[in-house]
Write a structure and sequence with these properties.
This protein is α/β, with parallel strands linked by helices and about 110 residues long. The protein has one domain. Helix 1 links the parallel strand 1 and strand 2. It is globular and about 30 Å long. The two termini are about 20 Å apart. The relative contact order is 0.20.
Length: about 110
């Protein structure tokens, strides 16, 4: 699963999780760092990404619009990047099952 990390997450996650989530990117890397949510959403759809965010905005959008893209909602609060990376590594089986689920639009991780 390719992940598109929202601006509220560190761009360092792309490198830290390259083995687990190859092809992932950060909004900064694709010219969307200051883009509104609908633009990030459209890019994720067009390029086959799942959006990863700490914001409830994408979770709400997933509930209203369904998928694609799928949304991974990281519910950790203010924490080091290493903590987010560890969560996404540890929950990789859940993320992959979420990707394969034809109905689920968002996954909350904490």
């Amino acid at each position: 699963m390719k992940l598109l990390f929202d601006q509220n997450l560190s761009p360092h996650l792309v490198g830290q999780l390259a083995a687990e989530y190859p092809g992932s990117a950060h909004v900064r890397d694709v010219g969307l760092v200051a883009a509104p949510d609908p633009a990030v959403w459209a890019y994720a759809v067009a390029c086959g990404f799942a959006v990863v965010s700490k914001d409830t905005d994408f979770q709400q959008r997933a509930l209203l619009l369904g998928h694609p893209p799928k949304v991974v909602w990281v519910r950790l609060g203010n924490c080091p990047t290493a903590t987010v990376a560890a969560l996404l590594r540890a929950r990789r089986p859940d993320v992959l099952a979420f990707e394969a689920d034809p109905v689920a639009s968002f996954l909350a991780l904490s």
